[in-house]
Amino acid sequence: MGLLNKQMNHFIRMNKKEDQFRKIIVDNENKIQGICKYYSLNDSDQQDMYQEVLINIWKSIDSFRGDAQLSTWIYRVAVNTAMGFANKEIRRQKIFLDQKDKSLQHLIDVDENTSKEKEKLFQTLENQINQLSVIDKIIITLVLESVNHKEIASVIGITESNVRVKVHRIKNELKEALKSSNL
Amino acid sequence: MNLDTLIVDMQSKDKKFKNIFKRFQVVFFLFVILYGGLFLVNPDSELTLNHRIAGVFYVLGFSAFTFYLRKYYKIYNKVNYSDPVKKVLEDAEKRYRKFKPDSLIVFTGVLFINAATLLMTIGNIFESRGTLYSFLLVEMLFLGSLGFGLVIGILWWRRDSKPIWLSVKNLLKELEEE
Fold this sequence. Notes:
The complex is a heterodimer.
Chain A: H1 2-38, H2 43-60, H3 70-83, H4 115-131, H5 134-144, H6 149-156, H7 160-180
Chain B: H1 3-41, H2 49-77, H3 85-95, H4 103-121, H5 131-176
């Protein structure tokens, strides 16, 4: 009887986990895809990373107790997965930007009249972002995803003022780099 | 992507991993029972006090291994991707250190087994050669194996874990900076 109860409880727990997992994925698919796109060159890589993030959400789901916002929780899993922080290798991730992405305006003023130079500007920006350190790259992808400073602080585990300083410094670095490239 | 297939796959992996650790724990626990039974519970009048004490050390040694495995399973199972990046890095820094506090549990286990083996051999098969000789021989073998294991472990760490440990330390340093 005891064993049967134990098995029943296990079954109920597994079903609950499955339901919770499905709901999280359905509700947050765009957020996960949003982060994955910066770390993947093509659709196939993006799908691989997306699947890896799902696997790690599954592994971590028992630890979600609501003390962080669900979106913060999702971003943490996505970023830790992308960078391989909990694995046996830290990936020297390259960041890929989408030229059509409107979120680039979070970083630079994209002047509509400079369309000829847009391509060059974009390339320089992407190169410069890839010169950044691992932590700065994470911050920049979150900024591009319109995540606010408070949430970035919670994803990374540093203070909000530290995030503000870092974002300010990164933006200045990027602007300086673009300026020196005459863009 | 098929979510159903993914869920089934992950559930089966969870189960498989859990079973592997359970089996290892069972093996060590069986050693605890076996040695406890042979040297402590066994009413055989030929068993000397040395044998009885050795039995206690064997049981303690294998218990230490079982405890370590249990602890390791919990830590491994707890690799949490949903912690803040800084916390994940701090945990990784601890995981990839050359000498971890947890290693002391294994070391204690090895010492218990060493003590037990010593008690079993002294005054037994080396009786004719004297206690000092058997003590030195057993210790040479044990310390030799321990030293060899330590060297292999350090070389392994240098090849596998040191690079990631250094990267993690650098990242943590970077996080501290403004």
